[in-house]
Amino acid sequence: MSTPIHKLFDLSGRTALVTGGSRGLGLQIAEALGEAGAKIMLSSRKAADLEEAAADLQAKGIDTRWIAADVSKPDDAQRLVGETLQRLGHIDILVNNAGATWGAPAEEHPLEAWDKVMNLNIRSLFVISQAVAKAGMIQRRSGRIINVASIAGLSGNPSTMKTIAYNTSKGAVVNFTRALAGEWGEYGITVNALAPGFFHSKMTQGLLAKLGADNMAAHAPLRRIGDDDDLKGAALLFASDAGKHITGQILAVDGGVSAVHGS
After folding, report:
1. Do 124 and 147 touch, CB atoms closer than 8 A?
2. Per-residue pLDDT tens over the stretch 94-143
């Protein structure tokens, strides 16, 4: 017997940990999951940003808490998972969104900047995903992991970006998603990734100012840049029972850029 569609997307009784959740794409995803009924744990490095973001979600009726942590540091990532479990009891949905970028020509890119980007953008995903799975998802044989990749991980250089560490790290996120989905499918854990194109955010504001938002939008078939709603539906699909038979997939949310410029 089929399930009513509204029940498939209902996250009531579930909990979600969202890294990099105090602003931008992470906050957008957290809002979507919270509006669907999930309890939300936000995390990022700055307590003040988290407090503001949590208050904003709470004002919308979303059960939200926060923990400040630097997930590029393995001990801090482990602490985040442990404290989340103490406060929420279990983690049903993990959104690996925390990330950083660094702009420099490849021949001049500092090694320490390369390590910083790699540690946050890909190593932290492994550390947190492993901790969350071992802390309950595997035993319960249920879980949803959503990684935030980028169209920069689908092709070598989707624009005039000189961000080799970022692009490389997001390419790693793509294959990390596929490999983990292959291993953990037997435990009922789905692992998927969103690959956003250009959205207005703190991370992209410098590039958009340099290249021009209208110019970037002109490269997309839909002639627009992502807004504050454009990741919500895709994130909810991956997080809910509506997506229970989807795993190892990379969904570009980019206005069609990857369709016409290759991936």
Report:
1. no
2. 999 999 999 999 999 999 999 999 999 999 999 999 999 999 999 999 99
Give the pLDDT score at 69: 97
Superfamily of structural domain 5-257: NAD(P)-binding Rossmann-like Domain (3.40.50.720)
The residues carrying an active-site annotation are 166
- Kindly report the three-state secondary structure assignment for every residue of 13-71: CCEEEEECCCCHHHHHHHHHHHHCCCEEEEEECCHHHHHHHHHHHHHCCCCEEEEECCC
Q: What pLDDT score does 111 carry?
A: 97
Inter-residue contact 27 to 21 (CB < 8 Å): yes
Token pair belonging to 191 = 């692992």
pLDDT tens for each residue of 205-219:
666 665 666 777 888
Q: What is the mean pLDDT of residues 38-65?
A: 98
